[in-house]
Design a protein that fits this description.
The protein has 410 residues and is α/β, with parallel strands linked by helices. It is built from 15 helices and 15 strands. The protein is globular, with a radius of gyration of 22 Å.
C-alpha cells in the first residue's frame, strides 16, 4: 500500500501511524511545510519526507469576513501543485490522508482521482452546542454565526471529496452534520503508555533550580497557550482560594501567551495580563512557577510528581494532555464538559467539576488532596482507562492501520 500523509505541521496526528505503517512494509510519504518537515527527519524512520513552501498570501487581498476561506484555498492550491509534481513523476498513492483544516485537502482528489482520500476530522464548527457561545464572557452573535459557516466552507468542500474520515472522539465526530458522520470513524491517535506512566521516584527541576518530587505537594495546570478555551481564566480565579486552602502547595503553570482558539485581543494584551490585573494582587507568586514550554521528558516528569492535575476546557477538541495525565497516574480534576466526559467518569477515574465555578474547583482540589491515599484507586483506574482503551501500541495503532487498509481496499 502506498500512503501519502499531509499535514502542514507534519507529522501532527500522523506522528505514530506514519512509522508504524512503514514498519509494516507500506510505502509512506509525508508532506508538510518544509521547515516543519526538516525537524522530523530523525524521528520518523522509514518515512520519506517532502516539504512544500507556502508563499504568504497578500494581506491586501484578504477580505476580513472570508479571510479563512481565502487562506484555505491558497494553501490548498500550493499543496495541489506539490502533489501534481509527485503525480507527474509517476507517484500513485493508494491512500491520501490529510487534516481537514487549513485547506490542504481541497484539491487532492483532482490530482489523485484514483486514490482514496482519508480525512482527519478534528472539529466542525457549530453555533450551538459546542465552543461558540459556551462562555458568557465571550458570547456568540449573529456575525459569529455567519463567520462559522464561512469557516466550515473548506471543511465541507473536503468532506464532499473524501472517501472516509476519522475523528478522535465520539463527541468530535458528533459535531459533523449527520450526512457526513456516516463516513467518519471514531479512532483516537493513542497514548504511549510505555513512556507516559507513573514513577514514584520522578523529580522535576524548576527554572530557579529547585527540585520537586512526589514528597512535595504540587498542583499542576498546563495548556499550550494560556487562554479561555482551556479554562485559564477560571483557574486563575480559583488560585487565590487554592493557595489559602493549600498553604504548602507549589503551583506549576505551563503555557505560552499566544492564542490558539480563543478570541483575539488588542495589540499588547494577553489573557495572562488580564488575569494578573484581575487577581494578581491576591496571589502568592513565590509559590507559583510560570513555565512557557517544557521538553516532553520534563513534561512527563511534571505529571508524575503532581499531587493534583487540573484540566479545563470548553466543549472542544480534547487535549492529549488530559489523557497523558491519566496515563501518568495523575489525580485529575477536570471540567464537566464534552468530550472530557467520554474519558473521565466522576469518582471513578477522576473528578469532574463545573467549568465556571472557580470556588467549587478550589474546594474539589483541596478535598481530593486531603483524602490522600484514598484517592489512589482513582489514579490507578485513570491509568487503566488509558491502557485498556487508548494504548498506542496495543489498541490505537492496530485500529488505525486496519482503517487505512480498509479504506485502500474500498
Amino acid at each position: 500500500m502506498r500512503v501519502l500523509l499531509i499535514h502542514q505541521n507534519f507529522p501532527g496526528q500522523y506522528r505514530h501511524i506514519a512509522p508504524y505503517l512503514a514498519a509494516r512494509g507500506h510505502e509512506v510519504v509525508g508532506l508538510g511545510e518544509k521547515d516543519n518537515v526538516v525537524r522530523q527527519k530523525p524521528v520518523l524512520p522509514g518515512v520519506k519526507l517532502l516539504g512544500y513552501t507556502a508563499p504568504p498570501i497578500d494581506p491586501k487581498s484578504l477580505q476580513p469576513f472570508i479571510a479563512s476561506l481565502q487562506r484555505a484555498v491558497h494553501r490548498g492550491r500550493v499543496v495541489a501543485r506539490g502533489a501534481a509534481k509527485l503525480e507527474k513523476s509517476g507517484y500513485r498513492p493508494d491512500v491520501v490522508a490529510a487534516h481537514i483544516g487549513w485547506g490542504e485537502a481541497l484539491f487532492l482528489k483532482d490530482v489523485f482521482p484514483e486514490a482514496k482520500l482519508l480525512l482527519y476530522c478534528e472539529f466542525y464548527y457549530n453555533a450551538k452546542g459546542g465552543d461558540v457561545g459556551f462562555d458568557p464572557e465571550f458570547p456568540g452573535s449573529a456575525d459569529k454565526g455567519q463567520r462559522l459557516r464561512v469557516m466550515n466552507a473548506p471543511l465541507q468542500m473536503a468532506l464532499e471529496a473524501c472517501d472516509h474520515g476519522v475523528a478522535p472522539t465520539r463527541w468530535q465526530r458528533s459535531q459533523f452534520p449527520p450526512h457526513y458522520r456516516e463516513k467518519i470513524t471514531e479512532s483516537h491517535e493513542g497514548i504511549d503508555t510505555d513512556i507516559v506512566k507513573p514513577d514514584p521516584q520522578a523529580q522535576f527541576k524548576l527554572p530557579d533550580g529547585r527540585t520537586l518530587s512526589r514528597s512535595d505537594e504540587v498542583i499542576t495546570y498546563l495548556s499550550r497557550n494560556l487562554e479561555p478555551y482551556r479554562g485559564y481564566h477560571i483557574y486563575m480565579r480559583a488560585l487565590p482560594e487554592l493557595q489559602k486552602r493549600r498553604p504548602k502547595a507549589q503551583f506549576i503553570i505551563v503555557g505560552r501567551d499566544d492564542i490558539s482558539y480563543s478570541a483575539k485581543l488588542p495589540a499588547g494584551e494577553t489573557y495572562r495580563k488580564r488575569a494578573m490585573a484581575e487577581v494578581g494582587s491576591k496571589i502568592d507568586w513565590s509559590r507559583v512557577h510560570l513555565i512557557p514550554w517544557l521538553p516532553y521528558k520534563d513534561y512527563i516528569s511534571m505529571l508524575q510528581i503532581s499531587a493534583a492535575h487540573i484540566y479545563l476546557t470548553y466543549p472542544f477538541v480534547l487535549s492529549w494532555s488530559c489523557m497523558e495525565s491519566m496515563a501518568a497516574g495523575c489525580l485529575l480534576i477536570a471540567s464537566r464538559t464534552p468530550p472530557v466526559e467520554e474519558v473521565v467518569v466522576d469518582g471513578e477515574n477522576g473528578l469532574l467539576t463545573d467549568f465556571f465555578d472557580h470556588q467549587a474547583l478550589a474546594a474539589k482540589v483541596d478535598e481530593a488532596i486531603r483524602a490522600g491515599k484514598a484517592m489512589d484507586p482513582l489514579r490507578e483506574r485513570a491509568r487503566q482507562t488509558i491502557v485498556e482503551k487508548y494504548d498506542l501500541k496495543k489498541v490505537c495503532l492496530p485500529q488505525q492501520a486496519a482503517l487505512f487498509e480498509r479504506v485502500a481496499g474500498g
